[in-house]
Please model this.
Amino acid sequence: MDLAGRYPNLHVSRHPLVAHKLALLRDRATEPKLFRELVRELSWLLGYEAMADLTTQPITVETPLEPTAGAELEPKVGLVPVLRAGLGMVDAMLELMPSAEVWHIGLYRDERSLKPVEYYNKLPDAATVQVCLILDPMLATGGSSSATVDILKHWGAARIKQVSLIAAPEGVATLSAAHPDVDIHVAAVDRALNERGYIVPGLGDAGDRQFGTFAGPSSEPGHASGDEAAEVVRRLQRTLSGEE
Ligand code: PRP
Ligand code: URA
Model:
């Protein structure tokens, strides 16, 4: 399926460094320390690409020799990491844009319904930034990202971009259908979701792999799923293939 042709808002990095680092990130032998470093490096590279169309305004700079024309970023930018896994992407983005504001959104995905559950949101009443970058390594069913976009649009953000390391086709379809104006920047789009809503081949659980929180075999991404989660995934896959 040609996803990039179908979803003009989808941008998959073609940078060889991204491909190299992503392969290391996927490797099950990669320990949390290296995993965190790779999340940071990939976020830097994807952030650089995602910000390529930010507008600038002309300024004059005094070099030691003479005045010259320069540029200054125009919009105020907000970084919106989705807790927990999005936390690992923040520092790299702040290196690129030290003046960005950071607004955390806490969501976890209910493992049976695969629906996002909001548990943290301290956004002030009115938007303080024009452009928001949602940071979340995994775009799986698209439920968490769609819910985050809903929150940010309600807040008043004028422009929203999603930056993720890996997306599933189902998640790209869900987010694009709900919010076609949101650009999606990723290192890769993988084959599909498994019956538990994990991206395959993917990298497993991005939060657990960053923070070393493995709760035993029943929390493994490949562990047998409940019927409800499997049905949610089948419904998303029917929608994607145009059957619904
Ligand atoms: C993961 C991931 C996304 C979400 C993606 O978070 O970081 O937020 O799942 O899934 P979706 O596209 O199907 O909504 P998780 O719920 O595991 O929480 P965590 O970051 O706290 O581990
Ligand atoms: N969340 C993850 O961390 N990994 C997946 O594959 C899907 C959701």
Remarks:
- The two ends are 17 Å apart (CA to CA).
